[in-house]
Amino acid sequence: MASQNYTAQQAQINKKIEKLQKQALLLASKTRKPILNGLVRTMKEYGILPAELAEAFGKSKVSAKAGRPAKTTRIGLVKKPVAPKYRHAGSGATWTGRGKAPLWVVEAEKNGQSRQQFLI
Fold it and tell me: Per-residue confidence at 4, pLDDT binned at 50, 70, 90?
């Protein structure tokens, strides 16, 4: 009987959670809509194009990796990708030499090889 009580309570809680999530989404859309309308009105007033806005946010600058935006540092400077420094002869896997060493480097060092052998 306790399991039925638990199941019923869990179902009630899930329904309440679902209802509250819907309310939160509705509230968010209600508060965002006037703000977006104000932004659009201001953009039209000053003749600002959406492309200019995207450029101001840096969205038009995309890194070479699969359309992702370039990473930025804390002060807002764009990090440039680092060229690989090491290459595994068998698999062709590369490593820049920064951060934690990949497994193939760690295993090679355990087997007595040095990183110098993998330099590009």
Answer: confident
Residue 79 lies in a domain: no
pTM of the model: 0.36
Range of the domain at 44: 2-48
Among 94, 96, 91, residue whose Cα is nearest residue 79: 96
The two beta strands, 86-87 and 94-95, are antiparallel
- Give domain status of residue 9, yes or no: yes
- The reply to whether 41 falls in a domain is yes
Rounded Cα distance between 80 and 116, Å, is 25
Which one of 1-5, 49-53, 60-64 scores highest in mean pLDDT?
49-53
